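WARN retry 2 of 3 for item q-0093 after timeout on previous attempt; input resubmitted unchanged.
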Amino acid sequence: MKKCRSKNGFTLIELLVVIAVIGLLASVVLVAVNNTRKKARDAKRLADIAQIEKALELYYDANNQYPAAGGATQPNGSWSNSADYTTSTTSWVSLQTALAPYMSKLPVDPSENYNINEWGGGHYHYSYFSGGYGCNQQWYMIVYTLETAAGPDPGVTACDGSSFKYGGAGTNTATKTVGVKAR
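OK item q-0093 returned
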């Protein structure tokens, strides 16, 4: 007598191989999507900073000085003091008011991972400062952090020669310091 054996399904080994292949493909797609999200947030940051700089230049052309402000954005758009970015007279809110004719609303960092007291290391926000160092409101700096390090920190030099490079002197930094030296 011959035993007739019908093949109606998959063996356990075949199922495990298929599940492993699907898991591997899913992890590759997930990594690609996460990298794309990081690049998109970084592109948004660069566009935001360029927009703020253009508004600051328009303000300067109209007022012969930059807005006096010191502060950093939080995800809800409010301002918070920081040891490095504090002035007694103004805030990010007053910067918003000063730049209102040139941009409807100041942008905030697209990331929700925020800590005002730290730069880099997964903490993101925009910070603006214009004051002191030999010529109040004739220069400014903006500090921000990218998720992917890209090129050196350009840095800013104040009127009195003080140099600011919050990203350090490396050739590939995530934290960037941009701005304008006094005219």
